[in-house]
Amino acid sequence: MAPASSSTSSSITLNINGEKHHLSVDHRTTLLDALRERLDLTGTKKGCDQGQCGACTVLVDRRRVVSCLNLAVAAEGREITTIEGVAEGEDLHPVQQAFLDLDGYQCGYCTPGQICSAIAVIEEHAAGWPSAVTEDVGSPVPPPLTPDEIRERMSGNLCRCGAYVSIVQAVSRGAEAHGEARTATAEEAAA
């Protein structure tokens, strides 16, 4: 049972990584602070706390958001995925595996936000969303996911260690795995 609400707090239910969490939060509590301080989901990192570094990126309804700028009360009723929820049981998400295989990290502090952002970037690209470097924004076919496209699409996620070359390679490999998975799913549906 959720705690009672007051004029400065609300009882909310957050759906995080497929689990419902009932808690009472001050109306000013950010989603980041609710995740880290109230629910002990510390994979999401607090970097700048100003929405500029991307370390706190999570997925809300499969779209990337910087959780330090989003209020917990605004996330009620939405599907929240943190780094702790992107794997399928013991099987890493293809983007997680690509980051490991290609050393897409150094200190690792920004990596959870990088991975969550990369997962969304791949989905956005597959859906045909253009970026600032997309040459033909009117094309019905997504442009190739070139290193320039990846760098632009991931530009909201900073890496203090400078692992950008490996991050771009990891996103590219994750996109390839995503494309292969989509093809296999389409073939299974047609069979």
Kindly describe this structure:
It holds the Pfam family Fer2. The protein has a five-stranded mixed β-sheet with strand order 2-1-5-3-4, sandwiched between helices. It has two domains: 77 residues, Roll (Ubiquitin-like (UB roll)), CATH 3.10.20; 97 residues, [2Fe-2S]-binding domain (DNA polymerase, domain 1), CATH 1.10.150.120. It contains five helices and five strands, in the order E-E-H-E-E-E-H-H-H-H. The longest helix is centred in the last third of the chain and has 27 residues.
Quick overview of this protein structure:
This is (2Fe-2S)-binding protein. The protein has 191 residues and is α+β, with helices and mostly antiparallel strands.
How far is the N terminus from the C terminus? 46 Å
Q: Please give the CATH architecture of the largest domain.
A: Orthogonal Bundle
Beta-strand percentage range: 5-15%
The averaged pLDDT comes out at 92
CATH class of the largest domain: Mainly Alpha
Oligomer: single chain
Strand order of the largest sheet: 2-1-5-3-4
Q: How many domains, as an integer? A: 2
Classify the fold: give the CATH topology of the largest domain: DNA polymerase, domain 1
Q: In terms of structural class, how would the helical and strand content be classed? A: alpha+beta
Low-confidence runs: none
Pfam families: Fer2, Fer2_2
GO molecular function, one term: metal ion binding
Protein name: (2Fe-2S)-binding protein
Pathway: Alkaloid degradation; nicotine degradation
